[in-house]
Amino acid sequence: MNFTFRILLLLSFLCLSRSSASEKSLSLEDSCSAKDAEDGKAGCGCGSNALKRDLPASNPHPHAKQASLEDDESIVSDESGLNDKLSQPEAAKDKEDVIRGMKLIPGGKFTMGTDDPHFPADGEGPARPVIVDQFYMDETEVPNADFAQFVEDTGYKTDSEKYGNSFVFFGQMTEAQQEPVKESVAAAPWWYNTPTASWKSPEGTESDLRDRQDHPVVHVSWNDAVAYCKWKGKRLPTEAEWEFACRGGAENQLFPWGNKLLRKGGQHGANIWQGDFPLNNTGEDGFKWTAPVDSLPPNKFGLKQMTGNVWEWTADYWNVHHQKTKEPVKNPKGPKSGEEKVKKGGSFLCHKSYCYRYRCAARSQNGLDSAASNLGFRCAADVEA
Ligand SMILES: [Ca+2]
Ligand SMILES: [Ca+2]
């Protein structure tokens, strides 16, 4: 590889391990222990929040500068002039077009977070009253076919394409696809920093989207997600909106369908991991890796795969300290600035024993230009244009 990257793991600063292809085989000792999970170990199992990009000074990245919520225009700016295209007045879009494939989520008061956090370090608590206005939410995660249309219309280049790589879970790759990989993450060796991996080549070399047009787009950064939603005349949901939508109108539930892992009748509610991570993925829920975005039953708001399948970006900057107020906070938007964004819902790599984050209250984070094979998004939209 011709560049390095850094990994922040909790308070530790860890370096990359360089390994030859023959040294990359994983052992069960690489598995996260239950203790790791209880400690909320970042990057454990499904989390890709240990993954952070960096570029040599000779190749400054156009998105490297800090951005604030008020500065969204700068986030999608680049030398290609794409931002000009994306700044076309959204009002010109037909509202019917904008809300096609979206569900109207009724506003209301709900309890955000939990007083029984599984990962206290993630800032899952405290449980606090929040009110959100009504809004529209994509029924599904954004599928590859839709993202392809965006790229075709705008010529947009994702962060992973600009960097020339992204992080892929090793089990998704053939031996031939693993061959060009020179770096894995020391603290989470199942993440391979894979040359040429991007939304259209999810496993790098010799991978494509054949048979995955209806699967969620992955390897998209927060910047990419914002650009796509803007092109659609939409926006990313706030964390509060996402969690309200996940809960489907129910209070104090772990999952969008209830408190038990399986739905009534023993049906799987989310595409997660069954078996021993990271070597034995039985795919008992019907899917070893990503699943079509419209598979599995919806929640009471008609939304599919809010938990599991792929993590979903939100608009909010990451913060683990939340005020417990007596009066509900209306439409919270998170901190005004930061270095990472909140992602919600967990992914196909999650299992209770090591990454129990496929709960509505669970949360994790990534840098604005980070991407991985288990990270996607869906858009929201305001009710009033
Ligand atoms: Ca699965
Ligand atoms: Ca999801």
From TrEMBL:
Give the GO molecular function terms.
formylglycine-generating oxidase activity
Q: Where is the Sulfatase-modifying factor enzyme-like domain?
A: 101-380
Q: Which domain of life is it from?
A: Eukaryota
Pfam families associated with the record = FGE-sulfatase
Gene Ontology CC terms:
endoplasmic reticulum
Q: What Gene3D superfamilies does the entry give?
A: paralog of FGE (formylglycine-generating enzyme)
Stretches the record annotates as Disordered = 49-98
The signal peptide, as residue positions, is: 1-22
Which UniProt keywords are listed?
Signal
According to its UniProt record, which protein family does this protein belong to? Answer: Belongs to the sulfatase-modifying factor family.
Q: What is this protein called?
A: Sulfatase-modifying factor enzyme-like domain-containing protein
Q: Which organism is it from?
A: Ramazzottius varieornatus (Water bear)
